[in-house]
User: Fold these one by one.
Assistant:
Number 1:
Amino acid sequence: MIADKPEVTVESALIFEKSVPGRRGVLPPKAPEVDLEALLGAENLRPEPPRLPEVDELTLVRHYTNLSRRQIGIDVTFYPLGSCTMKYNPKVHEAAVQLFADLHPYQDPSTAQGALRLMYELQRDLGEITGMDAVTLQPAAGAHGELTGIMVIRAYHASRGEAEQRRVVLVPDSAHGSNPATASMAGYQVKEIPSGPDGEVNLEALQAELGPHVAAIMLTNPNTLGLFERRILEIAKAAHAVGAQLYYDGANLNAVMGMARPGDMGFDVVHLNLHKTFTVPHGGGGPGSGPVGVKAHLAPFLPVPQVVRRGEGYALEYDRPHSIGQVKSFFGNFGALVRSYAYIKMLGAEGIRKSAELAVLNANYLKELLKSEGFRIPYDRTCMHEFVAQPPEGVRTLDVAKGLLEMGYHPPTVYFPLIVKEALMIEPTETESKEALEAFARAMGEVVRKDKEWLEGAPYTTPVRRLDEVQANRRPKLRWGE
Ligand SMILES: *Cc1c(COP(=O)(O)O)cnc(C)c1O
């Protein structure tokens, strides 16, 4: 049974097709008489009302409940997506977010002191965890934090009259794609640094590229192979010796938080992914948050407004002449900030450290279990919070991923980092139990022992079978009725 065509086995996922003219779920209050033409201009009004689905409430509830049941998420199953830290988001965080449900971003700051205090304390706590002197909470995701951080670095070099001279950003060949994309979007030339045979940055190759033309080095530590960069202090020293700034991609902070701080390793700028390390749910494209922390010499360039302490209270400070400006409407994704604040306050310093220890322990335990199921480990030493594996000889990573879907699991990250062939990048996180890890390892073993035909046909019982991923990317159908 080999699926050569995608086969959609479920009823329509389109609410439009359930629409019956005149049917309704709610009757909204009658709109006040407003002269829309005068307010918006006639040319901005639709000639006809929009075509919206008309359904009763029960149809609507069933529609979305059934859609949600076709989804794999962390609340449904183990989700070991490497580099994404798919940890459980405790439900009490949602209750905390509800406390702020009536707040509006246009409210006068004097009436939103609790929210500002939360942001102020979160800035301080994230600064403490990363070893940075100042933090902005504005960026909406990790990649957005990267862009913000690199713009801050550019503004710093410009303030010293070195913007023209420093044209290059160095990025290791194991880096997440967003690193070179960020540097190039910020107008820099990207120069790739090869990894050594131990999976770490090759220090000699790095030193050969360093010079007064380099603006920054972007690194993540532990790196995307799940290995700690043991020569990080030497790298920092070499970068600073030529006036370059060291940028920390904080996506892997879960391995070290509470134990080691990027600021102490010599990094000048850090972004965090609150939707990875600090539990904010993600994976469906929902709002994330990518705060950026910097050392004192870069603080004047951070975006405005900055949340500051003023007298007894808290205020939004806009008067910062060297700032790169505002990078997001309002003050960042506030709901994400509340969840992360609740997480940090509930765990405390001890709990944060313990989370990182357990994340590392879980990853190492799973790595050993998978070895006994026949998986190969290309860089086999004690890993941090994740590791990269390869299936047994002759089995394709793509087929392992599709087979896992059939077993009810979300697959690991596949074919990344690019420097490992047939890579499976596995990050269990600290929130999984020993039993969950063992069950997953058994499922992985079962998948790779299936025959070729089964593997190439999987998955069989999911709402959608194997898709043509190239066409899905190149020619996505985004319009209803096409
Ligand atoms: C996830 C990730 C990013 C990008 O973060 P987003 O929040 O997805 O924009 C950058 N670097 C690494 C290593 C990551 O894992």
Number 2:
Amino acid sequence: MNITETIKTTCPYCGVGCGVDAKIQQGNLIAVSGSTEHPANQGRLCVKGSALHETVSHQGRMLSPSIAGQTVDWNTAYSHIAEKLADIIAQHGPDAVAMYVSGQILTEDYYVANKLMKGFIGTSNIDTNSRLCMSSAVAAHKRAFGSDTVPGCYEDLELADLVIITGSNLAWAHPIVYQRLAKAKAERPDMKIVVIDPRKTASCDIADLHLPLKPGSDGFLFNGLAHYLIAHQKLDRQFIEQHCEGFDALSESVQQQTLAQTAIDCDVPEAALNTLYQWFAEYEHSVTLFSQGINQSSSGVDKGNAIINCHLITGKIGKPGATPFSITGQPNAMGGREVGGLANQLAAHLELKNPESLDKVRRFWDAPNMVHKEGLKAVDMFNAVDSGQIKAIWIIATNPVVSMPDADKIKQALTKCDLVIVSDSSDSTDTLPFADVCLPATTWGEKDGTVTNSDRTISRQRGFIAPPGEAQNDWKIICEVAKRMGFEEAFDFTGSADIFREHAALSGFENPEANGKSERDFDISGLTSLTDLEYQTLEPIQWPVNQTYPQGRKRFFDDGHFYTPTNKANLISITPRLPTYAADCDQLILNTGRIRDQWHTMTRTGKAHRLLEHIATPYVEIHPHTAEKFDIKNNSLVSLKDRNIEYIARTKVTDTQRKDSLFVPMHWSDAFASHARANSLVRPIQDALSGQPEFKHSPVTISPLSPHWQGILLTASDFTPDKTMEWFKTPLANGTLWELIDLNNTPDTDWLSAAFPKVSEWVQLTDSNQRYLSAAGFIDNQLHIVLLSGPELPEYDKSWLGSQVGERFPADQDRLRLLSGFPADPSMQTGKTICSCYQVGEQTIINALKNGDACSVESLGSTLKCGSNCGSCIPELRTLVNDHSCDSVSVETDNAA
Ligand SMILES: Nc1nc2c(c(=O)[nH]1)N[C@H]1C(S)=C(S)[C@@H](COP(=O)(O)OP(=O)(O)OC[C@H]3O[C@@H](n4cnc5c(=O)[nH]c(N)nc54)[C@H](O)[C@@H]3O)O[C@H]1N2
Ligand SMILES: Nc1nc2c(c(=O)[nH]1)N[C@H]1C(S)=C(S)[C@@H](COP(=O)(O)OP(=O)(O)OC[C@H]3O[C@@H](n4cnc5c(=O)[nH]c(N)nc54)[C@H](O)[C@@H]3O)O[C@H]1N2
Ligand code: SF4
Ligand SMILES: [Mo]
């Protein structure tokens, strides 16, 4: 009997926090769709979310605990860790122990990790990858509001008349929020959207104005806005007087930041800047959404405050359609903030620096070893591992060898460390080789708990697949170690519901509600007495949840009440400054970030072939002028260098990039390319206030590479490139595609037969100088390997050639056809995949547009289906429509998915 069951859960990728309906048949996840009743997505899913069922295979999963490479049972692993940690603490004190956790674990996992470290082991050396993500925004919120509160909600974007998107590529990084905004804009075309980003990104597709500002100059831009608002008297005087402090100092500090000066500082046209300022002054309903282009900066906190200042002095906060909006990246970045997962935070939005707060938590936990000072922030934490000050580090759900700045130093630090414990679901991250103890964790689809998204909505992730092998829940692993360290009672939780209740109770502990306000913003005391069943069936709800707001609260600060000692917001005067490194004649500035279909270090999205079709290999975006200056061509190989560290990828020459900077994706690891870990190049510069690294501005040099030969190799079997070769690897549905680059040796064929000893029949083509070589190898007539190579990367049809691996080729002429790289029938050529959901290629789309079969994004959707599922490719479809559509029809502006 095939019974299909639908389980309601939450997407494990970005901070939008979409509700997912998971269809289960006989214990297997067979399909996913967006939950129509979830407030974040209302039925939609982006391309990553809609490929979730393709990433849950047990292939590549870590299956059992191991110590020094030897498989052990859980009991041995727990006891080993507990004993080792106890030894280190006894000899060197609790600060010799550290945990480095992640915004991708559930609130319940996070809560027990923080409790163990800060109350029981007695060190604040627990930090999280959220340090790399939104710690600048957290610090800016606390300076301005006295608490780390996100004032608004997603609906505000739809209600606004002006949406400023700065330092965010919303279309690719928060696709469903972007689609909601695009729909609102389509329905109300008068609504204004402004994108502020040095690059012209896919998010500019719906923008009325794009300001390609000088990298890192946002502080000048928002101080310039404050100056404009003050000079033109476009202020909410009453709000300033009743609810803000520091106005005079702010006015004074922005005095020199005139429009003309700001245009120079930001290197943008004065008229464009004036338009933005006028709109902000004019539209009461304005939202400024910001993300990593603001946060990941040596002055990220100041930039956040410069943005918030503009909203406070105009009273554009706490009202429908009016708010500053720091959007979170990871699915549970917000939950991490609730439990106090950063080294300078305490649980439940209590202050680590405040002795009274510390005492509250100590009493609530009955903690024997309550901390009394802040711990080390991520970059400093790994420096302390490197210097030997930290002797044990437990890394949970993050891959720092790829994602931390100065990533080669992380390798070095971990190599020296006495005890490295890594809890991960994957069996092959770049960090795992440095672990002494490897712990297999359950992951999405297997674990139960809660996550909180960008607009404070708490949603349930539910488990519905049996974990593979011995994989165990993160909360359980932490609690078992804690119990063996002598803390049985405090960690004797029966399940995630039990932990959640304690977390909710702490949020309400000595947090009195008076006149409809709790003393602390984070208060979910209304959820303290959920039964297990109520927890199981918990519907999404926005915090706070207490007596005043039993059903949650959409907006904070609508009452002008802030969480500072005076209950007034602080206007923070900042001195804008450029990034630590500026471009000079030899150096360029390296900007890094995300692509549409990959998630971070690719341990999960790298498993879904569909998600590798949009962009399969790492690249360097470079402006045509810069390319010419350095004698670099499009799609050619280049080397980026800094401090003798090299990064190798192909170029995308494009005028969407500024002349002074380069962009590379952050995602590639040593598992997918020989030299394309962006963070090996990124310098560990931090914001002094938040400790957030400056990932967007590192100095590099660029030079073209001239390979002796290069090519593609498609194979059904395992293959390891020679150590002297450079390579990019792409898993395909029925094999693996390797791009091989030989910078040192001339081509020869011997290695090929040596690499594939089982291949019995070969066809081969080469020229008289042996500069070009194409070969195909067969086992029992079945295609096993194809190589196409030459001085340049050969052209070929990836989808077609990829689909031939494993097929039977008895006839010689068909075998030779393979070596051309293209199908005999040109109509079968599809080109690069644009729509991953329906696998529609660029060439197919261009043909349809040229033939007149479609003339708009909408008609492409009805003829080819592209763009009609998740909608993530709509910005690219629009570009193709603009470039190739038959002239007679104008381009429609409907952005709805
Ligand atoms: N597809 C996908 N989506 C994701 C993720 C993913 O890995 N893949 N990760 C999630 C996570 S954890 C996060 S934190 C978010 C991040 O989401 P975003 O912050 O939107 O992503 P990024 O691409 O890192 O950076 C955003 C933009 O900042 C711009 N920028 C660089 N320097 C400056 C500057 O000086 N000023 C301004 N104004 N802009 C600048 C970059 O050019 C880039 O386009 O994405 C989340 N969503
Ligand atoms: N150059 C550059 N670097 C960056 C950034 C940038 O913009 N530019 N952005 C930074 C930002 S914002 C972020 S958030 C980080 C992200 O960087 P990371 O956190 O390092 O990236 P992930 O690949 O998401 O790592 C998550 C790991 O957890 C594992 N995992 C998945 N589910 C579970 C689970 O339930 N339990 C356990 N124990 N493990 C699990 C996955 O297999 C994976 O190895 O990167 C940062 N680094
Ligand atoms: S926008 Fe996409 S990745 Fe983000 S939560 Fe929704 S479905 Fe998941
Ligand atoms: Mo992030």
